[in-house]
């Protein structure tokens, strides 16, 4: 996904999307709910990624399924 920085409004840009990932451990599409905001010359991305995953217990080595909710907070600085 490409976002043109000049097209981001003052109030920011919010969007949700779903993307399928082919993997033995990822069981469902990854859902993303993100907000992109300009902070002067920087760009801040905040939100959450959610997916289902098959994991393995480190003690008994049994597989189990879990919903993963991963917070996202990234600040991009302009290249000099």
Helix proportion of residues, in percent? under 10%
What is the helix tally?
0
Main sheet attributes: strand count, strand direction, barrel closure:
4 strands, antiparallel
Radius of gyration: 17 Å
Q: What labels would you give this structure?
A:
80 residues; elongated; mainly beta; single chain
Short summary of the structure?
This protein is 0% helix and 57% strand.
Describe the model.
The protein has strands spanning 13-19, 30-39, 42-56, 63-76. With 80 residues, it is mainly beta. A four-stranded antiparallel β-sheet has the order 1-2-3-4, with no helix packed on it. A hairpin with a 2-residue loop joins strand 2 and strand 3 (42-56). The two termini are 23 Å apart.
């Amino acid at each position: 996904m490409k976002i043109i920085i000049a097209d981001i409004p003052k109030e920011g840009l919010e969007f949700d999307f779903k993307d399928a990932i082919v993997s033995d451990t990822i069981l469902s599409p990854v859902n993303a709910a993100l907000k992109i905001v300009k902070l002067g010359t920087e760009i801040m991305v905040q939100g959450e990624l959610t997916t289902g995953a098959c994991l393995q217990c480190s003690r008994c080595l049994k597989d189990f399924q879990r919903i993963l909710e991963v917070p996202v907070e990234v600040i991009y600085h302009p290249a000099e």
